[in-house]
Amino acid sequence: MEEQPHMSTSPESNETAQSVSAEPATAFDLVLRGEQMLTTAGIVAREIGIRDGRVTAIEPLGSGLQGAEVIELASNQVMIPGLVDTHVHVNEPGRTEWEGFESATKAAAAGGVTTLIDMPLNSIPSTVTVEALNIKRRAAAGKTYIDVGFWGGAIPGNEGDLRGLHDEGVFGFKCFLLHSGVDEFPHLTADEMEADMAELAKYDSLMIVHAEDSHAIDHAPTAEGNQYANFLASRPRGAENVAVAEVIERARWTGARAHILHLSSSDALPMIASARRDGVKLTVETCPHYLTLLAEEIPNGATAYKCCPPIREASNRELLWQGLLDGTIDCIVSDHSPSTVDLKDVEGGDFGVAWGGVASLQLGLSLIWTEAKRRGIGLPQVMEWMSAKPAALAGLTNKGRIALGCDADFAIFEPDSAQVVDVRNLHHKNPISPYDGRALAGVVTGTWLRGQKVDFENPRGRMLRRGDV
After folding, report:
1. Which strands form 152-153's sheet, in the order they lie side by side?
2. Region entry Disordered: which residue ranges (predicted)?
3. Do 52 and 405 meet the contact criterion of CB atoms below 8 Å apart?
4. What is the pLDDT of residue 220?
5. pTM higher than 0.90, yes or no?
6. What is the pLDDT, as a whole number, of residue 467?
C-alpha cells in the first residue's frame, strides 16, 4: 500500500498537505528527516511529523516540517518501523529469575522491538484464567519499556475460561500437542485441541500451536548425552509434520483460525501451502535460530543451542528461507525462551537434561539482516517479516509500519555497521546465548515508542488488549 499525502488523522478535520505551512513552527512534537525512511512506499527520502504519539505527516524531504524536536538522520541510518515480536517468554511472575518484564522489555527495545506479546506458560500461574491474567498484568505494571500484550493458554479443562480471557483482551490462545516442559501447562490431545478450536471459532479467536506430535517423539531415540546428533534425532521432522497435519485438518473441520509456531521442519511446507489453497485459515512463523544456525556446526555439549523443535540441517534451512520468500511462512519472531545458566547444564553439556530454549530477543533484527543481506534480500522485506506481518497476526492495525495514523513506534538502524555479540552486554537477565561471540551486520542506535525515545530509565510501555487501536 502506498503512503498517502499528509493529512490530519483527526476525524473532525479534512486538512490537506497545503495547510502545513499555516501551522505554527512547532506544529509537531517530533520531526524526522532523512534520505532513508522505510515507509509503506519503501525506503524513500522523507520528512515525518509526529504529534501526540502518532504519525501525522509524511512529506518529501525538503518540505520544511517543523517540530519541537527535529532529528536529522545520517546518511548511513534508516528509520524503520518498530519490530513486533509475538513470541516471547517473559516468565514473570513465578520464574522471574529466568527473565522478567523489566529485563525483557529493555532487551527488546535495545534490538528495535517496540511491541511484544508474552506467552502464557513458564510464569506461575500460567495465563489460563482471567485471574491469572490479572496477576500477570499486575506483575508487569510499571516495568515495561515497550508495549506488551498477552496470549492466553488452552489446556485440558479450561475450555470454560477461554471466552472470559478473550473478552479480557488476550490476543489468542496457545496450546501444546506434547509436554510443554513445565507441569503447570499440560498439553492437549488433538481431539481436545479441536474442541477448543470450535469454541474459539465462535468469536473468531486464534489458536497458536506448538506442533510436535507426542507419540512420534515417544518412539524416537533418547536425547541424553552431549551429542547434538542424538538430540536432533530425538525431535525428528516427522513429529512436526504429523502435528502440523493435525492442526491443518482440525482447523479445516472447525473453520477456526490457526497459527503454527516456530516451524523448523521444511517438510511441512508443501502441506501448509496446499491447505491455504484450500482456504484453511492458517498462518506460520519461524525464528532466527532456524534461519541462521546449522545442526552441522553445533558443537557437542553446546546446550545453549538446545531448543524445541531443534535447529536442523543446512538443506532444511535453505528451504525455510524459500518458504519465507514464496509466502508460505508469514513472519519471523524470536521465541525468546530464556532460563538461568544452571538450567542449561553448561558444565555437564547434557542435551537430555538442559532447558530447551534460545535467548535472542535483543538480537533478532541483526541476526536476520546478516543472513538476508548475504542472500540479497532487502531491508523492506525483512521488516515485512519482522514487523508488519506479526502486527497483522495479532490484529495490531496501528503497529508494524510507518504510516499516517499509526503509533510512532520506530527505530534508527545502521544496516552497514557491525557488532560482535557479547552476552555480558545484553539486557537479557541471564548471560547465555548461542550467538555469543558472533559477528553480526546491522546496529540499532535508538528506539522510540509513540514518539518518545526509550531511555532505559523511564518505563513508558503500555499493556495492550486485543482490539486496541
Report:
1. 152-153, 173-176, 206-210, 257-260, 282-286, 331-332
2. 1-22
3. no
4. 95
5. yes
6. 84
pLDDT for the residue numbered 353: 95
Dihedral over Cα of 292, 295, 301, 306: its sign = positive
Question: CA–CA separation, 316 vs 250, rounded Å?
Answer: 26
Can you give the pLDDT at residue 468?
Answer: 79
CA distance 150 to 167: 13
Alpha-carbon distance 394 to 468, whole Å? Answer: 11
Residue that has been written with the C-alpha cell 518501523 in this structure: 81
Residue 141 exposed, middle or buried by CB count within 10 Å (0-12, 13-18, 19+): exposed
Cell for 269?
A: 511446507
Q: pLDDT digits over 385-418, tens only?
A: 999 999 999 999 999 999 999 999 999 999 999 9
Q: Are 391 and 434 in contact (CB under 8 A)?
A: no
Question: Domains along the chain?
Answer: 17-75 (2.30.40.10), 82-395+422-440 (3.20.20.140)
Helices (H), 303-354: 314-325
How far the first Cα of the chain sits from its last, in Å, is 19
Q: Which residues of the chain have pLDDT under 70?
A: 1-26, 469
The residues that bridge with 259 in the sheet, in sequence order, are: 208, 283
Strands 410-420 and 439-449: antiparallel
Q: What is the CA radius of gyration of the chain?
A: 22
339/182 Cα distance (integer angstroms): 13
- Reported as a single tens digit per residue, the pLDDT across 322-358 is 999 999 999 999 999 999 999 999 999 999 999 999 9
Cα separation, 210 vs 439, in Å, equals 31
Q: Where are the beta strands (DSSP E) in 137-251?
A: 147-150, 152-153, 173-176, 206-210
Q: Classify residue 346 by its DSSP letter.
A: T
Instruction: List Cα–Cα distances, 266 to 8, 162, 284, 291, in angstroms.
Output: 46, 32, 12, 11
Whose grid coordinates read 510507518?
402
Q: Name the region of 345 (left: φ>0; alpha: ψ -120 to 50; beta: rest).
A: left
120: left (phi over 0), alpha (psi -120 to 50) or beta: alpha
For residue 108, give the nearest of 342, 419, 386, 438 by alpha carbon. Answer: 386
What phi-psi label fits residue 130: left (phi over 0), alpha (psi between -120 and 50 degrees) or beta?
A: alpha
Residue 271 in grid coordinates: 502441506
Residue among 285, 302, 309, 106 nearest 220 (CA): 309
Element (H, E) at 253: helix 237-254
432 touches 359 (CB < 8 A):
yes
